[in-house]
Amino acid sequence: MNLSELIDEVEIVLDDTSFTSSIPDWINWAIAQAIDDANVPGFKEIISVSTVLATAYANLPSDCTGRILFVGDGTSSIPIVSLDELLEMYPDFDNEGDVAAVTIEGSLIYYQEIPSVAQSLTILHRRSPALLEDDEDEPEGIPLHLQRAVIVPKAASVGFDLIEDGVEGEKVNTNAQIINYNKGLYSLREWVAKRIRHNSRSIWSC
Length: 206
What we know:
By secondary structure, the chain is of the alpha+beta class.
């Protein structure tokens, strides 16, 4: 299904055309959520980031928008902790030395300690799926026979959540679409399971 077809399907479910301009964003969000929820293979990438002299953080590449699974220095892995934990471990935040821990916050990677010479960090992350922008663009990662069952209800749940905002009691339509999404997600996970080897858990199975 292409973007135009997916928009039509969501509008049919909502029975409301007032959200047309927002639906593409909902669809792209739904695709990204499904890819992550089902751990669809084919979205891992290895990138490198260099530390910055006398600075406790560096910018991540613009295409590094997904989950960070691993950070290493070429010799060993480096623990990924929260920013609070990093500050508790290194309250001065200006210690000089090899990188011993990192934090990912938005488009930045914070690290302690700060190398006196730029140090290259290896990062394994799950990239986000390509955005659908033109009418003919098609989703990646989700097989054609599951796209309607997975993408449409997830996107429609956003619309119904807005429509039912302020409604007393249960959001019936919103919840119904979430249930439909979970059914589609179950099928997507089954599809994924048939295409990956069941090795012992590691960063490569994330």
